[in-house]
Design goal:
Strand content: 35-45%
CATH superfamily: Jelly Rolls
Shape: globular
Order of helices and strands: EEEHEEEEEEEEEE
Strand order of the largest sheet: 3-4-11-6-9
Number of domains: 1
Keywords: Auxin signaling pathway, Endoplasmic reticulum, Glycoprotein, Metal-binding, Receptor, Signal, Zinc
Number of strands: 13
Helix content: under 10%
GO molecular function, one term: metal ion binding
CATH class: Mainly Beta
GO cellular component, one term: endoplasmic reticulum lumen
CATH topology: Jelly Rolls
CATH architecture: Sandwich
Distance between the termini: 18 Å
InterPro entries: Auxin-bd, RmlC-like_jellyroll, RmlC_Cupin_sf
Main location: endoplasmic reticulum
Length: about 200
């Protein structure tokens, strides 16, 4: 069992507080897609549970290693309300993000510690390579909805500011929405659930 603790507050979040309490991760995935690998299951993303622990952020894991037992692929759907600023962070693997609705502000930092800003509108997408410090913000007046795909190492490293060095950052592993298994599972996936004994659920 892995243990971790990190608390991130303010960070330009316009009054919103980001905080993670001590977390732990189940030893096994919640579902096992490989249990019936040759019969792929159809399910509706509307039936997935919101597992976010952040104020102002809705999160659904469409498919993923902890929730579904995939080996590499992780896909999320996230909604950020106006005023949300995600802290600067990195991922251990590759990340692709597409804006489905609204206007997102994307920032990234290069090796010379120079921060650049780009605007993503509906149907815009961006690929973020491993260990690139970046963030997304909603500085507009309407919700933004994102589709996120990650491959490989899912751990994140959170930076207290854009000026901070790696020695000041803190590793976040597991992701906050992977701490417990969803209590609501689409009907077609229910036969793939692992035994609930000894497994925490949201």
């Amino acid at each position: 069992m892995r243990l971790g603790h990190i608390e991130v507050t303010s960070l330009l979040a316009l009054g919103l507080t980001w905080q993670l309490s001590p977390v732990h991760c189940a030893n096994e995935p919640c579902l096992d897609l490989y249990k019936d690998a040759h019969r792929p299951k159809v399910y509706n993303t509307a039936d997935l549970q919101d597992t976010s622990s952040f104020e102002g952020v809705a999160h659904k894991t469409i498919t993923g290693m902890h929730h579904h037992g995939t080996r590499q692929l992780e896909m999320w759907m996230q909604t950020l309300v106006p005023g949300v600023v995600i802290p600067p962070h990195t991922h251990g693997g590759e990340e692709w993000v597409m804006v489905l609705k609204g206007t997102a502000t994307f920032k990234s930092r290069d090796l010379d510690m120079i921060v650049s800003t780009q605007t993503l509108r509906s149907n815009d997408s961006i690929t973020v390579l491993p260990e690139v410090v970046h963030n997304f913000s909603n500085l507009g007046e309407e919700d933004i909805q994102l589709i996120v795909a990650l491959v490989g190492d899912l751990h994140s490293v959170l930076y207290p500011s854009w000026e901070a060095h790696a020695s000041e950052a803190q590793r976040l592993d597991p992701q906050p929405w992977d701490v417990k298994c969803p209590s609501q599972v689409p009907q077609s996936l229910q036969p793939l659930q692992r035994e609930a004994q000894g497994r925490d659920e949201l």
